[in-house]
Amino acid sequence: MFTTSTNDLVSIQFYQGKYMSIKTVLAASLAVAALTGVAAAQDYSLPPTYGSVALNPGFLPDPHQAQVVAGGTIDASSINNACVGLIANAPDYRLQYGGGGSQLFIGVTSSVDTTLVVNGPDGSWYCNDDYNGLNPLVGGEMPDAGQYDIWVGTYGSSTAPATIFITEYDQ
User: Fold this and answer.
1) Which helix (H) or strand (E) segment is 34 a member of?
2) Mind listing the domains of the chain with CATH numbers?
3) Residue 83 near residue 124, CB atoms below 8 Å
4) Are 49 and 92 in contact (CB under 8 A)?
5) Of 133, 83, 136, which Cα lies nearest the Cα of 114?
């Protein structure tokens, strides 16, 4: 399971006595729609821009690397306030992971300050910025099998070359 989840950050309870007014119900519905609709800005149903890979535990070479161009026009904080940077609509890269491994890490290296957003197999969003200097990393023990969609962001409107790496080694 990855360690930096944004899945449980918003918990809202609406209660106002015995009865709620239509105005209150409408306001609550709009708030929920706004909170749940923002994560749809990143469309993981689109094909990844820079390719995909299927890996099983013990894969070689480790780390697996993929060259991408980081950046986009969508504010990653629209997924959650813990996410930062500007990312694309379509995933930059896709990992199909076989599962059963003891740990898995997804990171980015670049000569510029990059950010990382990953949508895991269970629908959870994982975000990181500056894990190692200006390079982000997400991951942890007992990763789920399935599809990991990966976005690499930048600050500002510029794009930059970046390398996604996927590894089972300690980071």
Assistant:
1) helix 22-37
2) 39-167 (2.60.120.380)
3) no
4) yes
5) 136
Q: Which of 138, 143, 105, 136 is nearest to 122 (CA)?
A: 143
Contact of 98 with 145, CB cutoff 8 Å: yes
Kind of pairing between the strands at 137-141 and 146-154: unpaired
Q: What is the pLDDT along the chain (171 residues), one digit of tens a residue?
A: 454 443 332 222 222 233 333 333 333 333 333 333 344 468 889 999 999 999 999 999 999 999 999 999 999 999 989 999 999 999 999 999 998 999 999 999 999 999 999 999 999 999 999 999 999 999 999 999 999 999 999 998 899 999 999 999 988
Contacts of 19 (CB under 8 A, 6+ apart): none
